[in-house]
Amino acid sequence: MEVKRTSSTDQDFISLVAFLDQDLADYDGDEHSFYDQYNKITNIKYALVLYKGGHPVGCGAVKEFDRDSMEVKRMFVLKDFRGNGYSSIILSELEKWAAELGYKRTVLETGKRQIPAVELYKSKGYKQIENYGQYAGVENSICFEKSIIS
After folding, report:
1. Which of 90, 93, 92, 96 is nearest to 77 (CA)?
2. N or C end: fewer C-beta atoms under 10 angstroms in the chain?
3. Mean pLDDT over all residues of the chain?
4. In 10 A of CB 95, how many CB atoms?
5. Distance separating alpha carbons of residues 114 and 24, to the nearest angstrom
6. Which pLDDT score, from 0 to 100, does residue 34 have?
7. How do beta strands 46-52 and 141-147 pair?
8. Mind listing the pLDDT tens digit for each residue in 55-101?
9. CB 50 within 8 A of CB 58
10. CB 62 within 8 A of CB 94
């Protein structure tokens, strides 16, 4: 298992995000275009790719949300590799990276229909918050936060 810190220009990250977008289109249906506009990967400085046996199997990223917070974005593990704790590894590494950069909390948004994601975030100490920004009032969205201060 290897975790590589990179950026949104990394080809493995770009490839995994393409699989993520297809997966989300299946979950979100007609709503996908609304979410897609807020999930472009251009200029993401802090992205991770998780490798197993030298092959990219998962990814995630963080971007500045405000002075004290990073937003978790583009969390994904290929279907054949799910159920092995890889999402937990990616999330933990993103939180660690954000803390190293001096941020105090992480926030994120996911879809209510994405039950495994919701369960992951809750199991990792994320607390539901009021939907923020572009997700305010969006019925299918659920937002979370977590303090990452050691």
Report:
1. 90
2. C
3. 90
4. 21
5. 9
6. 55
7. unpaired
8. 999 999 999 999 999 999 999 999 999 999 999 999 999 999 999 99
9. yes
10. yes
